[in-house]
Every structure is written in structure tokens, then in C-alpha cells.
Amino acid sequence: MTYFRKILQFAKPYKNFAILNIICNIFYAIFSTLSFIALIPVIQVLFDKTKRVSKQPVWDGLSGAKDYVTDYFNYEVTQRVNEDEVSALIFICGIVVLLFFLKNMFGYLSSFFLTFLRNGVLRDVRDAMYKKILELPVAYFSEKKKGDTISRITADVNEVQTSFLSILELIVREPLTILFTIIAMLLMSAKLTLFVFIFLPVAGFVISLIGKQLKRKSNLAQEENGHFLSIVEETLSSLKIVKGFNAEQKFYSRFQESTNRLNGILNSLVNRQNLASPTSEFLGIFVIVIILWFGGHMVLVDGTLDAATFIAFLGLAYNILTPAKQISKASYSVKKGNAAAERILSVLETPSTITDAPDAIDKKSFEKEISIKKVNFAYEDETVLKDFSVTVPKGQTVALVGQSGSGKSTIANLITRFYDVNSGEIELDETDIRKIKKASLRDLMGLVTQDSILFNDSIRNNIGMGKDNATDEEIIDALKIANAWEFVKDLPKGLDTNIGDSGNKLSGGQKQRLSIARAVLKNPPIMILDEATSALDTESEKLVQKALENMMKNRTSIVIAHRLSTIQNADKIVVMQKGEIVEQGKHQELIDVNGTYKKLVDMQSFE
């Protein structure tokens, strides 16, 4: 219940609906009990003439309230019976119908108000989950399966919502119904009620044994649900590779293994849950039979209980069964919901390692230089950068080159603060970037990655991501600089053309040029190009390279390059090997040195 209590914090904004729900549940419980109590005087007056009251009772204080209410009701019924037995019957039936109508009306109203609370909590938990996903560092998701995260924000949140209804009924409606019913039973016959309660704890103990493993089974089901969603997500994002390598059967077998495991877990879970209702009902009927035997003995042999009261008592005893059964079902549901809440809270309570310092500043402009000083960095146990230092003056282009795995892209991740350095400093105008607010730091930077990351939306919305309310003219200018307008203007809907999931309706070169246009439109003072031309064919590369050169004029640029032909005009080329700088200088200077850079150029000249 610890996790569920934390989830209940989301209900605070909806406390008015909760209060209205509780009020309606109180009335529901009252009328539920009264509907059975009303049967006693009816049976007594109609079938036992000695119970008729011809004299109007007199109020004798609170101590005699029970007898006064009973006698007054009997008096009203007696008056009508004496006048006209049919009208008396109509009056009695009307009372019963009214009580059951009020009971069901308040039952509906309690559910009506609960709906706003449940759906509000559902929305707020989802919003909090998504916000947290956006806040968490990139490193968190490199260790997690996407499908598992999707499962937590969908299936687990739905499970919590379902359980949320159950726990509110568990706390308010059903316990109140049982409480009022027990009070009424005690007033009728304390001896018979105490006899009933000898057997109820035994029944409760048997029911509790069934639910012992529900939380564990539910957790396994939710984990497996996340696993098979991961397989679906991987299949959809890698469909060309799956088909190209004829791996359909392999992936289908993996998926079947997961769904078979989930099937086994769910069968066990649902069967155990389904066992709750018949078990509680059978035990309840068993208790009713015991009451019939013991109560019947009190009526027929001892004469300590009249028949009408005993019949109403039986009705009230059965009235306990339904809420007791609901409580047992709700307790199982809560166990499942608690497992889901645990998985949700494990995301919500994950501390974000990349946060703004308390004294972080808003930096609106870039004036001098980016300075990387003695930086060391490792992904878990794998060291990527060792004592790395470089300075990028304002207005200059610095290129980072080297073999794959030399740490080039890591520099881009550290400058944009997707990750924080293990030791050393990265400074912007002599201010540590950890002392600058993340939002203002990233506002100063434009990023074009090796993979063209586009969204299933129009070209207009993809390009305008970095600049709200950009005009069509500004978007078209950015597309022209990126040499993308030539193909965009020929599309059926122009800027409003939807480019499909991940931009898959376009070629690799077209997607990359749109990514560049997006960075151009943002117009930041610092541009980070992480192998921005690697996905382009030779012709597109030449077009984009010229566009990039135009864009980088009078702009500070850090270019991570695979194709060395694209960075020959850089102000400084930094050659990296295993996280360390082995050479640096201008293109011709490094060629003349005849070292690592020259070897890389010679190797690519044969490609």
C-alpha cells in the first residue's frame, strides 16, 4: 500500500469530488440498510395482528428512539390497514420502492463524482510520467527498453486507475454498508450477531490466503507486457533489416515466446482472482445456513426472536455478503494496482542527474569562446575521453576527426549537456556550463545529428521546432540555405506535406537536409554538426556542404566529421584516437606532418 498512498497524492486537486463521493456513499449505505429494516414492521403488521399499534406513540427522549420510530411506523401502517388493506399494501410497497430508489440514486451519484476523480488522476499521472520522461537524462534511456517505458505510461497507469476505483469503494462505500448493517443486526439481536461473527473471521482468513501471490504475479505480467512491447517497437523501427535478413520467423518466435509467457502468467493471475468471488459467496452462504440453524432455533424453540425480525436479519446478513465480496475483489485489485504503482513511481522518483544548479544563470548570448579543460568521461566502465582539452574561439570552425569510437560524438553530448563530465570543465565565456540553465545553454546551440531525427508531422512543423511562430518566408529561406527547397516545392502539399514516421517518405539525403534546415531556422550562435553529411550521396553532399559553409560563416561551429573532404576549410582540425588528441592544426599543416590525419585522408581517397 506504500506505493498506492503515494499515487493517492495525485487525488488532492480532486478532493471536492472525493468528498461528494463519500457523502453519497454514506447515504447509499444508510438506505441500503433501511431497505431491509423496513420489512420488519411490514411483516409484523400484515401477518401478526398483535403487533398492530392503534395508539400514536409519544416521544420519550433519545433512549427510546428505536422503539418510538418502530412504533410510529407500525402505527401509520396499522391506520392504513384499518382503513383499507389495499391502500396499506400500496403505502408499504411505496416505502420499499422509495428506499431502494434512494439507495440506487446515491449509488449512481457516488460513481458519477468518482468518475471525474479517477479520470483526473489518470490524466495527471500520465502527464507527470511524460514530463518526467522529458526531464530524465539521455543516459537513463540507453539502459532501458522503450517498450517497458511505453507499458508503464499506458498499461500500468490504466491498472492504477482501475484499482483506484476499487480502493475508494474499499475505504468508503462497502465498509459503511457493512458497519450500518452490523449496527442494525446488533439492535435486532446481539446474541445472533455475535454468533455470526464467530464464523466471519474464518471466512475472511480463507479469502486472504487466495490473494497472497497476486502482487508478485501482477508484477511479472507487467514486466512481460513491457518486454513484448519492446519487441513490437524494435520490429517496427527495424522492419527493413528484419525483412532484408529474412529474420521474420526469428522475430515471430521471440514474440511468441513472450506472449506465451504472458499467457501463462495471466491465466494464473486471472484464475486466482476469479476464485475470490465464488469462494467468498460460498463462505457467505455457509454463514447464512449457520444463521438459519441458530436463528431458527431462537424463533421456534427458545422464542427469543420473532419471525419477522429473523427474516429481516437474514436479509441484512446477506446484505453484508455483497460488500464483503466487493472488498475481497477490491483487495486483489489493489494488490495488482500496487504493483503497477510501484513501476510508475520507479520512473517518477528517479532522480535526474542532469539538473540546473541552484545558482544557475540565464545566458542570452555567446561572446568569446567554448573552452574544454582536462575532461575525463566514461560510459559506465568504458573510458571514452582522457584529459581532453580544446578551445573553440567565437566565429571559428573546429573539426573533430578520428576513427569510430575515438570519442568525437561524446564531445557533442557533453557540450549540449546530455551527459555531465566525470572530471574537468566545459566553459562557455569562462562560465562552467553546469552553472548555466540547460534551457538557455541549448538555446545558444543548433544540433544536426548523424541520424536524421524527424517526426511524423508536416515539413512546416518539423522545420519550425526550434522557432515558434516562424513565418513561411523564414522556413523557405532556411530550406533554401539547406538546399532542400528544390524538392520541398515540388511535393504535393509543399510545406504541409506529412513526411511519415521518422520521415520515411523521404530519401536519406532529403531527411538530412531538412534536419539542417531546422538548425538553420533556429539561427543559434553555436552550431554542432555530428557527422551531418554522412547520410548524403556525393551530389547531395556537395550541395549541403556549400550550404553548411554559408551557414557557418561568422558562426562558431563544432563539426564532427567522418568524410574529411567536408572539413578541409576548418580553422582547426583536432585528430582523436581512443579519447585523446594526437594531432591538431589546419588541413595543410596536418598533411605536412604526415601523421595520423594524413593516413586517414589517404584511406578515404580510395573510397
Q: What is the CATH fold-level name of the largest domain?
A: ABC transporter transmembrane region fold
Number of helices: 22
**Approximately how much beta-strand content do the residues carry?**
5-15%
Round the mean pLDDT to the nearest integer and report it. Answer: 79
Helicity range of the residues? 55-70%
Extract low-pLDDT stretches. none
Broad structural category:
alpha/beta
Look at the structure and give the CATH class of the largest domain.
Mainly Alpha
CATH architecture descriptor name of the largest domain:
Up-down Bundle
Task: Please give the domain count.
Answer: 2
Spatial ordering of strands, largest sheet: 6-7-8-3-9-10
Task: Give the biggest beta sheet.
Answer: 6 strands, mixed
Overall body shape = elongated
Structural notes for this entry:
With 607 residues, this protein is an alpha/beta fold. The protein has 2 domains: 2-348, Up-down Bundle (ABC transporter transmembrane region fold), CATH 1.20.1560.10; 369-605, Rossmann fold (3-Layer(aba) Sandwich), CATH 3.40.50. Helices cover 63% and strands 10% of the residues. The chain contains 22 helices and 10 strands. The protein has helices spanning 2-7, 15-37, 39-47, 65-83, 85-135, 138-142, 146-188, 190-210, 214-237, 239-244, 248-274, 276-302, 307-348, 408-415, 438-443, 459-463, 472-481, 485-488, 508-522, 538-552, 587-593, 596-605; strands spanning 369-379, 382-393, 397-402, 423-428, 431-432, 445-448, 526-530, 556-560, 572-577, 580-585. A 6-stranded mixed sheet has the order 6-7-8-3-9-10, sandwiched between helices. Strand 7, helix 20 (538-552) and strand 8 (556-560) form a beta-alpha-beta unit. Helix 4 packs across helix 5 (85-135). The chain is elongated. It starts with a helix and ends with a helix. The model has no long low-confidence stretch (mean pLDDT 79).
